[in-house]
Every structure is written in structure tokens, then in C-alpha cells.
Design brief:
By secondary structure, this protein is mostly beta strands. The chain is built from two helices and 18 strands. The chain has an eight-stranded mixed beta sheet with strand order 3-2-1-4-5-6-7-8, covered by helices on one side. Strand 10 and strand 11 form a beta hairpin. It is globular, with a radius of gyration of 20 Å.
Length: about 240
């Protein structure tokens, strides 16, 4: 399983989720022609705190897991065959708050992260130097910065946001399209990556047939080639071609 170092989007490792053993992925191991992270078979990311590695990733059987340096694995959720999400710990929260010294004073730049169940049980807790990632985020003046948030730098902020998104999807029954390195499953059919056809609301339909909403596959429309792609609830969305009528 390949994971990238979260705040660098590089330094890819190959992790064995059973034993916890890992190795760095060399350039020679990468698929020919792959130039960006999205073209690599990456399943998640990792970060290091005082030399200890924390990971979050999707397994081959569609479980999203958080792995600690001690080898403890906490399952966050799982994706069901129909594309819906099921929480493994309903009501789970990832709480991030300022760290404090033993005398109660704030520890500048540091944060405490806790995974807390709906019953108030703490599954895991750690402290880390959150200020480092905040400074990196604030000092990024590249063009990509306009599209990024703190979660793109801070692994634990990303974990918190992911847990919140999964909870909303589980509650709503939303069925979002999931892309893998080799394709996607649309209406129960595996579609190779090279055969996927996308179109956004307002653009001209490139192919007649049934189109499924990427954000929620429960929404499907029959659109003829040349017609404008529709919106969903007056909101522009991305569509993926599913099948002929």
C-alpha cells in the first residue's frame, strides 16, 4: 500500500498494513509516465511526530483506517458496495485543541488531538507541533495555494475534516463516486480509468446516455449529445457517463 508524506505530497512509502513494515518507493518503482500524485496507486498519507509515524488510508476492501506508531489500527468507516458510507464508530469526533503545560499555561504552537466516541471514550490522544504546518500553509504563495487549506498541510486537520465528511455522507445516504488508480465503479459496473467520461453542468453533452452525478450517484439523468449538461437542485455538478439508455 503506497502512502505519501502529507505535507510534502512526496516521500512515498510502501506500507504493509498487516505487519506495519514499510520501505521508501523509488522512482524506478513508479509507473512509466506518471508525473503527478493522482497518477500513482496511492491509498492515503502519513505524517511523523517525533520520529513516530501516523497513517490514514483506504484498504483494498474499502475500509478507511487510522494507524498509530504502536501498530494500533482504528477503523473510521467503510464504504459499502452501493457507494454509501457506514461509520464504524457512529458519532466519532476528532477533537483538536491547544496543548497546555502541566501548570496550565498554553504550549505555543502545539495542539492536542483526540479521537472521541459518542459515549465520550477517548480512543487515542497525542500532542504535536501544529504551528509548523500553520506556518507552511501561511507562507505558501504558489498558484496552488488558492485551492488549498490547512488540511493540505496538517495531517490531523485533514483527518478531522475527513471524519466529519464521512459522518455527513453516512447520515445523508450520499453515494459519491470513488476513483481508484485503475478506474471506478458506476452503477455496479467496473469502468476502466481510460474509459471514464466526465462533463460539467452547462457544458455540451459529449455522448448520449445515462449520466450519473459524481457528488451523489443517486442523481442520474438521461442527456442527449449536444444538449447542455444539467444541474442538480440548481447547483452545478460534475457528471460521469454510465451507460446507453
Amino acid at each position: 500500500m503506497w502512502l505519501y508524506k502529507h505535507h510534502t505530497c512526496s516521500d512515498i512509502i510502501d506500507l504493509d498494513p498487516v505487519t506495519g513494515r514499510w520501505r521508501y518507493v523509488e522512482d524506478a518503482d513508479k509507473p512509466p509516465g506518471a508525473r503527478v500524485l493522482a497518477e500513482l496507486p496511492v491509498r492515503g498519507s502519513y505524517t511523523e511526530v517525533d520520529g513516530n509515524r501516523f497513517c490514514s488510508y483506504w484498504t483494498d476492501d474499502d475500509r478507511f483506517e487510522f494507524r498509530t506508531p504502536e501498530g494500533r489500527v482504528i477503523e473510521i468507516c467503510r464504504k459499502l458496495p452501493d457507494g454509501t458510507v457506514q461509520e464504524s464508530h457512529p458519532g466519532l469526533l476528532c477533537v483538536i485543541e491547544p496543548s497546555r503545560e502541566r501548570d496550565g499555561r498554553l504550549k505555543p504552537g502545539w495542539s492536542d488531538v483526540s479521537l472521541v466516541t459518542a459515549q465520550g471514550d477517548v480512543l487515542y490522544r497525542l500532542s504535536y507541533d501544529a504551528g509548523t504546518y500553520l506556518r507552511l500553509y501561511a507562507s505558501d504563495f504558489t498558484a496552488a495555494a488558492a485551492m488549498q487549506g490547512l488540511a493540505d498541510w496538517d495531517f490531523f486537520v485533514a483527518l478531522k475534516e475527513a471524519i466529519e465528511v464521512f459522518a455527513k455522507r453516512a447520515a445523508s445516504g450520499q453515494r459519491q463516486l470513488t476513483l481508484s488508480h485503475d478506474g471506478a465503479v458506476i452503477e455496479g459496473r467496473k469502468v476502466p480509468k481510460d474509459d471514464l467520461l466526465f462533463a460539467g453542468s452547462g457544458t455540451s453533452c459529449p455522448r448520449s446516455g445515462v449520466w450519473v452525478c459524481v457528488e451523489d450517484m443517486r442523481a442520474a439523468r438521461i442527456v442527449q449529445a449536444g444538449e447542455p449538461m444539467p444541474c442538480v437542485g440548481d447547483q452545478p455538478v460534475q457528471w460521469v457517463w454510465s451507460r446507453s439508455r
